[in-house]
Here is the input.
Amino acid sequence: MAIEIIGTGKAVPPKRVSNNDLSAQIDTTDEWIRSHTGIGNRHIADENTACSDLAVEAAKNALAMAAGYTGADIAERNRAASEIAGSIDMIILATATPDFYGTPSTACIVQNKIGARNAAAMDVTAGCTGFVYGLETAAGLLSIRQERKRALVIGSEILTKVTDWNDRGTCVLFGDGAGAVILEKTGADGKRGILRSLIYADGSGNSSLIMRRGGSRNPYKKGETMTEPIYIEMNGQEVYNFAVKAVTDTIDALMKAEDIKIDDIARIIPHQANARIVQAAARRLRIPLERFYLNIEEYANTSAASIPLALDEMNRNGLLKKGDLLLTVGFGGGLTYGGNIIIW
Ligand code: COA
Here is the structure.
């Protein structure tokens, strides 16, 4: 048995905001943002777009590819996607920015919108590691029941709606987007698909990246005036130090677990939070930087969406060959981290 990726998709809002656009509104510069993070642009959702809207677009693109359609005609894409939506057994959606807090899950909203009537649906909350966790969750659930064949795993985020636009230390970092994959259980035992996943957490760092208001710890109370929207607070340096170690340790552990050498790896797809984090980890591991796929310049940090978004971009641009050994590596709020080894 193998768990293979048979379709990928992405969605980004059309509005593209450059560093120079931001510097017209807040005290920052293109030079500072690029030199400290590698970010050049981000895509920002309009007022009417929520997490499920981007998730549905990415899911339809992935479903259509799994059904054999990769063209640009939206009506054709929708027809192809709806052809196989009924064959999806589960939807796992990773997000820190759901349509609604608590209930319903955004996965259930997506299930309804794409017509995946036979799919179980739930969200995964694991910060920017959400997609890595989601793949392992879906692979596990597919493995333990013979009758389950296909899963849709999505990472989708609207981070710009929970960003403190008065804090230049965080607001320049985030963007909106979604990525999705279709997993299928096949007979390609050990030759293709997800070979292994490692998922970890260090809850002692739970306050390093946190949305403090709105939950049961700190709800808005009757009569209280809400002066500011709910937003992400981050201790940048703490997260930076954690992230470099998380990327280094995860890649090292994945390679050891499957007895893989650096030369065996075709590409590493890291969570796109900061190019400097990737550069530091690459130096420590003595892995050439070109082996890491980076698209942070265009999309900034899209949290749980960043890895599947990159995967789809690579796939559609012909950068992935059958048999390629890929490593994903994620880290983020929780604190969480982990990675997957995939044979394409
Ligand atoms: N534009 C211009 N200057 C800025 C700025 C901005 N957008 N943001 C911060 N600065 C300034 C600070 O005010 C500070 O100025 P000072 O020295 O006069 O006080 C200076 O730049 C250095 O700030 P510092 O916070 O020490 O910068 P840094 O080198 O640590 O970089 C981050 C900040 C956020 C880029 C870095 O800490 C980081 O990438 N952390 C990890 C973030 C992350 O990956 N989060 C998501 C995890 S999933």
Observations:
- The chain has eleven helices and 13 strands.
- The domain at 194-343 is CATH 3.40.47.10 (Peroxisomal Thiolase; Chain A, domain 1).
